[in-house]
Amino acid sequence: MPSTPDAAAPGSAGPDRGRADACPGALRLHPADDGALARIRLPGGLLTSRQVTALADAAELLGDGAPEITSRGNVQLRGLRSDCGAELAERLRSVALLPSETHERVRNIVASPLAGLDGAGYADVQAWVRELDARLCRADWAPGLSGKFLFALDDGRGDVAALDADVTLIARPGGTALLRLGRSATARAVPAGQAVTAALDAARHFLAALRERGLAAWHLREVPDLLPPGGEELPDLPGTHPAPGVLPGGLSVGLRFGRADADRWRTLAAAAPDGVRLTPWRGAVLPGAAPGLLPELARAGFLTRPGTAWDRATACTGLPGCARSLADVRTDAVLALGRAEDAGLPVHWSGCERRCGHPAGRWVDVLATGQGYRVTPVGTPAPPVEVTTDEMAEAVAEARRTT
Ligand code: SF4
């Protein structure tokens, strides 16, 4: 499977677990510089067309009008009025996007978005998503998890298994699954029918062991020896994730920086009568959507073909939405991507050293410094380079070609 090297980029600030977990939710709005921010958990990234429309309406009526996909396939609404919490909650409740008020922030579940769709012979993990979400929401211990604790349910192709989750299930042929804890190099084999129970047990044991030892941690990777890892080697999996275009079982599109205005989300809903699966790579898979709809989605502004410079290009909010930022990173990134011809390594622009939403694995870190940018190919031996904003496009293109 793809390696999951330390997701923290060079120079990242270390975690401070002494402070409360302030991760935003659908009910706990975060006061950002561009208004309040709500994060709505979507296990497996699954949305019905009606739910897509409801999110577009909520963003338009209560916020800045542009829902955005997060690095976990959830949705954020930004620029919300500070007094809109009750109305937002009611809108979410009316379309079943708020099944538990006590557990809403811990429903962090990513799943292989192509599971059961592309005829590649991998397991269909959608049933795991529904079972895990339902049981998590009924578990009285679960609200003790951090709002950042992540479950990854991989259909066997290794896509979400590379996302640095706390608890990862990897389906295997023959009715078994591997349970991987944090960044452990080994895993434990479990019957597929008991995989969800094993994942929940791991999360519960994590909380119990922290309590017993008087430790504070949000992630299993912070306390790697806390739980026994299992004795099976991790398999070498392809790790491919959906590229924009036509799939055997539908369509796949990308959203620039994961963001689209409400009308574009409505266009997506109309093209996807069977619902959408949002991906942790800021895209959407549309099961059953007709290939003939792709040109219309391209005209609406979605990314519909693979291999462009926008492939796996992301950026944090930056200025003006985040006062910590040293630059308007999205504007700078758009200019740089417009001058690039092809893709290469994933790339992420950050306005400060927190590097919100950066990818895992090998990627190009483009960090605002106040004088320009520092460009670092993370997970490779290539050294960082300091460049001006004008020089940044060329430096990024070269770093993305790093092998
Ligand atoms: S990385 Fe820094 S500048 Fe960017 S959104 Fe996060 S805190 Fe703000």
UniProtKB/TrEMBL annotation:
Transmembrane segments: none annotated. It comes from the Bacteria. Residues 1-15 have a biased composition (Low complexity). Residues 37-94 form the Nitrite/Sulfite reductase ferredoxin-like domain. It holds the Pfam family NIR_SIR_ferr. SUPFAM superfamilies: Nitrite and sulphite reductase 4Fe-4S domain-like (SSF56014), Nitrite/Sulfite reductase N-terminal domain-like (SSF55124). Keywords: 4Fe-4S, Heme, Iron, Iron-sulfur, Metal-binding, Oxidoreductase. This is Cobalamin biosynthesis protein CobG. It comes from Kitasatospora paranensis. The lineage of its organism: Bacteria, Bacillati, Actinomycetota, Actinomycetes, Kitasatosporales.
